Amino acid sequence: MKGQGMSARKILEEWGAKKFQVINKRAISEITLGASILATGGGGDPEIGLLWTYKVLDEGKEILMVDPMEVPDEIQTASPACLGAALVLTEKPPGDGVLNLAIRRLERYLERPIQATIPIECGGVNSPVAYAAAGELGVPVIDVDGMNRAFPELQMTSWVTHGVHSSPTVSVDNRGNITVIDTGEDDVLAETLARRAAMAYGGISWIATYPLTGRQVKETSILYSQSIAWAVGHAVMRARQEHLDPIEELLKSLKKERDVEGFRVFRGKIVDINREFGSETSKGFTLGQVALEGIDEYKGQTASLDFQNEWLNLRVDGEVLCLPPDLIAILDSETGEPIRTDIMKYGYRGTIVLIPAHERMRTPKGIEMFGPRHFGYDLDYVPVERLNG
Amino acid sequence: MTGELRVGFDVGGTFTDGVLMRGREVLAKAKSLTTQDVTAGIVEALDAVLAESEANPAEISMVSLGTTHTTNALIERRNLNKVGIFRLGAPATTAIPPLTGWPEDLKQAISGTELVHVIRGGSEYDGRDIVPLDKQAIAKACREMKGKVDSVAITGVFSPITTDHEEQAAVLVREILGDDVHVTLSHRIATISLLERENSAILNASVITVMQRAVSSLKTAVRERGITAPLFIVQNDGSVMSADYAMDYPIFTVASGPAASVRGSVYLSGIEDGVVVDIGGTSTDVAYIVKGFPRESSITVTIGGVKTNIRCPDLLSIALGGGTIVKHEGEEVSALGPESVGYNLVRLGKSFGGPLLTVHDTAVALGKLDRKLEVFKTDFVTHPEKVNALPKRLIANAWSAVKVTIEEAIDKMKTTAEPVPAIFIGGGALVVPKEGISGVSEVLCPNHFEVGGAVGTTIAEIGAYAEGVVDLEKEDRDNAIARVTEQAKDNAKTAGAIRETVEVIDVEEIPFTYMPGKREKIRVRVKGQVLE
């Protein structure tokens, strides 16, 4: 196979790429923290992806992140990821070589070597996983993703809303079972099949998906999404060290990196969690509702959120303050650590922050595919900056 | 019950503190050196408070103990059990093997990776086997670890939902290794999240013997004194649990001492927001209090450098206490500890004619031990000439190293740049700097500060819980939770709490997704006050 024995540095030399960054442990921990914050309550346990990436770095493998503008048009990329219920992943970490297996099978199906990985989303798992896989494969990571947040379904990407597709996708499990999904332009069907495979495997699957060319990456991705996550993570870690307000630093970093305003709208403690377990077996998501009782200046108010892996919408005393695809983060007020849907517990205290989705996620096609109506709300999408302006 | 007598002990690495209380009143207090067998120290403190108060042992209605045994053992990597580690989860989970991310010295203290076995097995979320449990591999591993382990920790994928593989593995382990080898099953320790639960179970297994010794010593001591009152141990949330239960679950006491101290500090000082610095002979715990309660760790709790998912107050434990050895080259301090001379202070410390320089000796040399407390029976110094002979610069350097260490610990726990009040308690509070501490508005040493932890154990509340399996297709969720909550409150009352004071700590719902319908296990934890 042509793809074997590559090194990320050699590939970048072949491309003549100058703009790239070496990812060390500190860098990946900042990128992963930032990605978990942007993951909107989903994205899974960062610990697992991080420990995995650390292990790859400890084995002496180099991980490089390259500027998308340095990527040649014709090369083949793919996105390695974990698909399934986040709760299952925290309990069932990956076995050795699962993503390698998925990528090699995809190469065989495409009859082309994969020369770079593209993270599918911002998430505690799928962000570092794309780096771990790149390190293991000896290819670079491109500074893009398909969402700049996390979303529950495979087709909810800027890639699909800009006309490229997830097929063919290879889905594998720890026992070496392999499913190849090739539904052409039907990305919703691909999601359905991938989800069924994950459930049949036992709740999660490891996939190699979105085999995009270099040119498609540049035209349809959320560009510099990794740098945005990195800046957010860096700001929060710095705030912790210097005893600054992590929420304030996070909002400043977004202003600087993306030129958008985020909103701090609520502070409270979790008083009720209703997980819909029945649905988890049939649909493969972590689903339910949660209620927070306000504290400090929000005393007397109640916030309620629905979740499907990620937070979907926020209402405070019945008034809608945020709708998908805009981002909701519940963060520990003191550390800025995100409180995720899969680990929240009765009594946790947090601050709710709202962040406008990236423009490439807000196109009419995007609102149709992952706006409020898609998630079953009889509401038109209103941007978060207008709901809170 | 206000008039009834309670005795509380706080067994630290160096001193054992005891108090005898009636209502809010401290009738008697005592401090004894913690002895190697623990018992003697408790007996001494017990006898001292009984003698001082002239109380009748038969009238004592509650004996409670806060202990830093498990924490100290983990921090110092001392007296830990050799732990056989089983993970039931291959071929999944192998990319991140057990003990990943553990500090190397702690790994070695429990026998390193040699006794780690990742076995084919574990369950899926829906109760199916990932693969059938490889019993042969378990049996083979057990035969290999025979004679090399004191304790075994078993963690199966999805065991909080399906306990079968852990139970089956436990039967095999007991069969081959015998009943002397204690078995910890992860599903009894913590909930979903494999790596953190596994870490919690391994840590629990590593401190079994430490806790067994502590409890049996206490039992013997009080029975011999004619006290028939029930025994309680303070657990991580500041409530108490029965001592027998604690022997199998020592990890639930990992924050026992600090939780008792925080409650004691708030009770004694009246300060409800600030930092509590509890300085013992071996270690110091720093907690941040908000509205009278310790701030709880939000997501993971780090114990001895290891991430766990045990619910705990957010604490920073550092190896600094009165008995901490000051290592030096000439007049320069090279390190503070982490070793402490502990109860051997009176033999090994310079102040007592011994060979080692400790934090205590530094304070003696600077004349900081000006307050002679009745509660300390020993003199602070028996060989002043040895202390006076110490180089002045070395003493100044050591004093400043202690100050910096405390300042750094406080700084790590503070979440605001503004200065906050600090409550210094514990016997070690006498021998550390309290002036000019940066980041702090004032340092308070309230009355009875030297026995704050012991006072805290006696105001502890009863913790209790109840579990029920419900089918949400047949019963409304709110009704089901209310029903289990009532049961938990009844249990708390049975355990000695006043029914009206019982409140819910948390409600946990664990799905039984592999069963027809919407079944789940509901677990409600409550706590209530023992006294009006």
User: What's the total number of strands of chain A?
Assistant: 17
What is the distance, rounded to the nearest whole angstrom, between the alpha carbons of the first and last residues of chain B?
7 Å
Which overall shape of chain B is indicated by the principal axes computed on the Cα atoms? globular
CATH superfamily of the domain at 5-73 and 211-270 in chain B: ATPase, nucleotide binding domain
* Low-pLDDT runs of chain B: none
Structural class of chain A: alpha+beta
Spatially, the strands of the biggest sheet of chain A line up as 15-14-13-12-11-17-16
Could you please say which CATH topology of the domain at 5-73 and 211-270 in chain B applies here? Answer: Nucleotidyltransferase, domain 5
What count of domains describes the coordinates of chain A?
A: 2
Mean pLDDT of chain B: 86
Shape of chain A, please?
A: globular
Average of per-residue pLDDT values of chain A: 92
Helical residues, percent of chain A = 25-40%
- CATH domain class name of the largest domain in chain A: Alpha Beta
> Which second-level CATH architecture of the largest domain in chain A applies?
3-Layer(aba) Sandwich
How would you explain this protein's 3D organization?
- Chain A is α+β, with helices and mostly antiparallel strands and 389 residues long.
- Chain A has 2 domains: 8-225, CV3147-like fold, CATH 3.40.1610.10; 261-387, CV3147-like, CATH 2.40.390.
- Chain A has helices spanning 8-15, 25-38, 46-58, 86-91, 98-110, 126-137, 158-161, 187-201, 214-220, 225-242, 246-258, 277-283, 364-370, 384-387; strands at residues 20-22, 64-66, 77-84, 116-117, 141-142, 144-145, 169-172, 178-181, 204-209, 222-223, 263-275, 287-294, 302-308, 310-316, 319-322, 327-331, 349-355.
- In chain A, helix 2 (25-38) crosses helix 10 (225-242).
- Mean pLDDT of chain A is 92; it is low at 278-282.
- The model of chain B has no long low-confidence stretch (mean pLDDT 86).
- Among the domains of chain B are: 5-73 and 211-270, ATPase, nucleotide binding domain (Nucleotidyltransferase, domain 5, 2-Layer Sandwich), CATH 3.30.420; 81-206, Rossmann fold; 461-528.
- Chain B is built from 15 helices and 23 strands.
- Chain B is 31% helix and 27% strand.
- Chain B is α/β, with parallel strands linked by helices.
- The A-B interface holds A 45, 47-48, 51-52, 54-55, 85, 87-88, 90-98, 174-176, 202-203, 243-244, 273-275, 277-278, 280-281, 332, 334-335, 337, 339, 343, 345-349 and B 89-96, 100-101, 122, 124-126, 128, 130-131, 157-158, 192-196, 295-296, 298-300, 307, 411, 414-417, 477, 505-509, 511, 513, 518, 520.
